[in-house]
Quinolinate synthase
Amino acid sequence: MGETVDYEAGIRELKRSMNAVILAHYYQESEVQDVADFVGDSLALAQAAARTEADVIVFCGVHFMAETAKILNPTRQVLLPDLKAGCSLSDRCPPAAFKAFKDKHPDAFVVSYVNSSAAVKAMSDVICTSSNAVRIVNQIPKDRPILFAPDQHLGRHVMKETGRDMVLWPGSCIVHEIFSEKKLVGLKVEHPDAEVVAHPECEQQVLRHADFIGSTKAILDYVVKSPKQKFIVVTEAGILHQMKKAAPGKTYIPAPPDNGCACNECPYMRLNTMEKLYRCMKDRTPELVLPADLQHAALAPLKRMLEWSA
Ligand code: 13P
Ligand code: SF4
């Protein structure tokens, strides 16, 4: 007979005995979000990691997010339930190619989206997330050319919002690039009373149909405050869990991707499960470790982001 474990109770007990904090992103499965101490977007999670006093940070998100927590907390143990929880944006920006790109523009101010490796962050002047990208770019001296990597769609959105020209790395997210414009327009026709809310990692032809564009947290706050009762949500479907909790009477329709599925889930984020979370806490592995020099080099641009976001 296999072992039957009450993962939720086990995780809560381990949290107490280890003095751990569980940080989770909105794209995690609902049970993982519910057992977490804090659920947020990339910026809020980085800020929560920066201020925690727990001995252990258990990060329920993807690798770059846990890496960010480790860079901000070099002395604390950072656990990630599955080290294979990567990110297509980060994978599409290999450090050697990024260095060659940067070398072609020696005078440029380099802004990297937080969805990038520690090695890319270490070569950047400042980091941004989807919630502070406009604010960060607005603070760059007007006489400096700007390189923006790795998400071209967020980059284009920021160019539009700030009026700044930027050289864009041609990266994209496998989840957000496959929303179907045709199906979205069909949903709008079917639900004329719905507002469309979208993440800026979506392509321009999708974003142009949005009533509101923002980070996961900004989208969540928007639907809660909006007087409208119905929303077509163009981002990873995990966010619907918090929408239903915060504003249960409203209707949320996940926008469909172009692959035949009814809604869109990030295959990397969904690698984390309650079982893996429990086991990683119990065994204190997998642990996120980084070379000290890389950790040190990536800290300055991350700290600048936190300062410029305050
Ligand atoms: P947010 O920072 O908006 O939560 O986005 C993270 C992400 O990976 C979106 O795909
Ligand atoms: Fe990366 Fe896209 Fe997944 Fe976000 S949704 S973690 S950008 S692959």
User: Anything to note?
Assistant: The chain is about 45% helix and 15% strand. The pocket of iron/sulfur cluster (ligand 2) is lined by residues 62, 87-89, 115, 173-176, 201, 236, 266, 268-269 (CB under 6 Å).
